[in-house]
Write a structure and sequence with these properties.
By secondary structure, the protein is mostly beta strands. About 5% of the residues lie in helices and about 45% in strands. It contains 2 helices and 44 strands. The chain has a 5-stranded mixed β-sheet with strand order 5-1-36-35-34, with no helix packed on it. A 5-stranded mixed β-sheet has the order 2-3-4-6-10, with no helix packed on it. A 5-stranded mixed β-sheet has the order 7-8-9-11-15, with no helix packed on it. Strand 24 and strand 25 form a beta hairpin. The radius of gyration is 22 Å and the shape is globular. About 60% of the residues are buried.
């Protein structure tokens, strides 16, 4: 069976999850069926591909201003058994799609590479105006048994590509399994080039786990040891680097690193920790150098199994964080925690601003978490949590739960605002992500279902945001703490947008904010809202300004109407030194 290879080829600290799987017999599900039905379903090329193991927004790889999607299939055997593939789909997407019709297909080097075990947008690493992608192959043996590799491809790209066609390749040392986790780090060092972060839960002399940061631009072949920053777990078998993400949790305009370590050994058992390092990050560090440490609640919770930026769930203009604790080893229901930014110092998970609790024991609720943007169009960002071992649609059907912001207190998963359930054997929710894939201003759900049964290819399901899209309008922009002066190193500021419908009919209103100044003119925010007569909307935004931005006067202009026709607008200016 395909899972037999995955278990046999993984290190003990990574294999536990697979060893905990039930081997109940399930009838194959040859159709990708979810309840409710997805707006778009993308199905893998062939049986046992594990297509949908990861499915995430790719940014705008081809430069058409429409978001794209990348999906991993780590067990694809086009080159050799379990070699793997990654598939890039250019937006806009519609209907049901087969992976073979992807705009670009990247194929692994060799047997057992598991290319596609991780995929992510890299941001714009070479600063050419096109977003780039990163793909992990944790089983690659090029520099030693299961040393692993990460491949960086600069956009745009199309057609059939070999992994070795990558613009940059990063290799680990023997048994490092580099590429198990990859993510964009944003522009950590403020030089105008986006950076990438790679996590591996088993690297290090005592299997502490490590995280590697590479500053853009990158070209050619590199080793993990040559990273611009190397952070090592502080304890043996800590699984530091099992999950990685970035967000600006201290609101200084510079992205920060978020690292999960779900097996922290406290008295011989695990609670888990999450470490946050304020950007910029450079040099050699250990986990306990973190600026923020969040401690798990209970023994064997697996706190930090998954981490992700949550967006702005409480609408205060500061990034929030969501953390998963799947509770595999204490047979709990699983939990997900939302922490509102700004964050600093030592924090107990029990003090989270919101805690979501899974429906039943061993559902693995919290195995995946994501911020999805504003799915329901109420002005607050929302979050998504996966539970791939939930049996709501049959054995191991899986579920994904969307919770609308703002959130507070303890919330049962069954009380989620939108629930998606797979069919028997789908493992729906192993991967969850969010983004605005159709450009309508609302967050969309991206849910991976790699499918457990022999012969099933796996799929990714997309659910478009359900918010409503907008004659007498009022709009004001109000900057916080004027006058705004951005220092040479860059920074950020916040402003409020207030929109009102002063007419006598319900309207769908398009709203967009532009930033203009020396060498730039672009839309930085865009969304739509439906407002009844007399209704209003208030939102707080934060605008980041990179250190590489030219000095001078910039204008921020808010517009409302039917895009691109402006009915009402307001603006303010700021200075960049």
């Amino acid at each position: 069976m395909k899972r037999g290879h995955i278990v046999a080829s993984m290190k003990p600290t990574v294999a536990f999850l697979c060893l905990g799987l039930s081997l109940a017999l399930i009838q194959p599900n040859l159709k990708a069926e979810t309840a409710p039905p997805a707006d778009i379903t993308i199905t893998g090329e062939s049986g046992d591909d594990d297509f949908g193991w990861r499915a995430v927004p790719a940014g705008d790889v081809n430069g058409d201003s429409i978001p794209d999607l990348i999906v991993g299939a780590p067990s694809n055997d086009a080159v050799a058994d379990f070699a793997g593939r990654a598939y890039l789909f250019y937006g806009p997407l519609s209907g049901n799609i087969n992976a073979a019709d992807a705009d670009a297909i990247i194929t692994a080097e060799a047997f057992g590479d598991n290319l596609g075990i991780s995929v992510a947008s890299a941001g714009d690493v070479n600063n050419d105006g096109f977003d780039d992608i990163i793909i992990g192959a944790r089983g690659n043996d090029r520099r030693g048994i299961q040393s692993g590799r990460v491949y960086l491809f600069y956009g745009p790209l199309s057609g059939s590509l070999a992994a070795t066609d990558a613009d940059a390749i990063i290799s680990g040392a023997e048994f490092d399994e580099i590429g198990h986790v990859v993510a964009s780090a944003g522009d950590l060092n403020g030089d105008g080039f986006d950076d990438i972060v790679i996590g591996t839960a088993i690297a290090g002399s005592s299997f502490q786990g490590q995280v590697f940061v590479f500053n853009g631009p990158l070209f050619g072949e590199r080793t993990a040891a040559s990273a611009d920053a190397v952070i090592t777990g502080g304890f043996s078998n800590e699984s530091f680097g099992a999950s990685v993400a970035s967000a600006d949790v201290n609101d200084d305009g510079i992205p920060d690193l978020i690292v999960g370590a779900p097996r922290f050994p406290l008295g011989g058992v695990d609670t888990g920790r999450v470490y946050i390092f304020y950007g910029p990050v450079a040099g050699s560090m250990i986990a306990t150098d973190a600026d923020v440490i969040i401690f798990g609640e209970d023994l064997n919770d697996g706190f930090g199994t998954s981490v992700a930026p949550a967006g702005d769930v409480d609408g205060d203009g500061v990034d929030d964080v969501i953390v998963g604790a799947n509770q595999l080893f204490n047979e709990g229901n699983g939990k997900a925690y939302v922490f509102y930014g700004p964050l600093a110092g030592s924090i107990q998970a029990a003090a989270a601003d919101a805690i979501m609790v899974g429906e039943a024991a061993q559902n693995l609720f919290g195995i995946s978490v994501a911020g999805v943007g504003d799915f329901n169009g109420d002005g607050f960002d929302d979050v998504l949590v996966g539970a791939w071992d939930n049996d709501g649609g049959g054995v191991r059907s899986g579920r994904a739960y969307t919770f609308f912001g703002p959130l507070a207190g303890t919330i049962a998963a069954a009380e989620a605002d939108f629930i998606v359930t797979g069919a028997a054997g789908d493992q729906l929710g192993l991967s969850v992500a969010g983004g605005d894939l159709n450009g309508d201003g609302f967050g969309d759900l991206i849910i991976g279902a790699p499918q457990f049964n022999d012969g099933d290819p796996g799929y990714a399901a997309i659910f478009f945001g359900t918010g409503q899209s907008g004659q007498g309008l009022s709009l004001t922009l109000t900057p916080h703490n004027p006058p705004i002066v951005i220092p040479p190193a860059g920074g950020s500021f916040r402003y409020d947008l207030d929109l009102g419908n002063e007419g006598n009919t319900t309207r769908t209103i398009d709203v967009w904010v532009t930033l203009t100044g020396p060498g730039t003119s672009r839309v930085v925010e865009r969304f739509s809202r439906t407002l009844a007569p007399g209704d209003s909307l208030h939102r707080t935004f934060r605008q980041r300004v990179r250190g590489s931005a030219l000095a001078g006067t910039y204008s921020v202009t808010g517009n409302a109407g039917t895009f691109p026709t402006v009915e009402v607008s307001d603006s303010f200016t700021f200075e960049k030194r």
